[in-house]
Design brief:
Oligomer: single chain
Low-confidence stretches: 175-179, 197-202
Mean pLDDT: 81
Number of strands: 12
Distance between the termini: 23 Å
Number of helices: 2
Number of domains: 2
CATH superfamily of the largest domain: Hedgehog/Intein (Hint) domain
CATH architecture of the largest domain: Beta Complex
Helix content: 10-25%
Largest sheet: 8 strands, antiparallel
Radius of gyration: 16 Å
CATH class of the largest domain: Mainly Beta
Order of helices and strands: EEEEEEEEEEEEHH
Shape: globular
Length: 202
Amino acid sequence: MKCFSRDMIVQTPAGYRRMDELEIGDHVLSIDENMIQYSPVVMFLHKKEDVEAEFYKVQLKNGEFIELTEDHLIYKTDCERRGKLELVYAKDLKAGMCLDFSKDHKMSLQRDEIVTIEKVRNTGIYAPLTATGDIFVNNILASCHTNYAVKSLQQTFFAVYRMVKGRYDSLFEKPLIQESDMPYGAEYLSSVLDLFVPKNLF
C-alpha cells in the first residue's frame, strides 16, 4: 500500500480539508513543472476508512508533519542549496534531510529539515491521484505515484483508464466501479509497471 493517513489535510481554494473528506473533482494544492497550482483529484488509488496500517510520521523543525506508508514517494531536497527535487520512498528518509512545503496560500516552495521519524499506526488509508501526479499533504510536497522511474507511464495509464471509465459510465447507468478505490485490474496493471521497470532507471 502507498497511502496517506485519514488525518492528513490538503489545501483547497476554499481552505483546508481532511483526507477522508476529499472527493473526486475537488481541487487541491499541487505542483506542475515547478509551478504551484491547484489540480483536480481525478481518482483514488486507495480510499478505505476502516483499514489499519503502519505509517511513517515525518516531522520538520517548523512543526509540520506528514504520515505516509513506507513505500509512498515523497520529494526530498538539498538543505544547503536549491537543487532538483528527488523522489524517495518514505522508508528511506532520515533526520537531517529536507522536504519542501508550501503554506498560508503563499504559492511558493520553502524547505525545512526533518527532525524526527517514527512509526505510528492509524486507521484509514487514502491515496488521491491528481491530474499533475503530485500533491501537498499537511503542506508538504509528496507524489501520488509508486515508482519514480515510471511516473509518466503511470500517469498516462491512469489517464487512459479514466477515459475508458468515463465512456463506460456515460453509456450505462451502473458505474464501472465505485469511486472508493482503484479496481483490482487497474491496480494490477499499475503494479506491473513497478515490477518490470527498474526504480533506478533514471
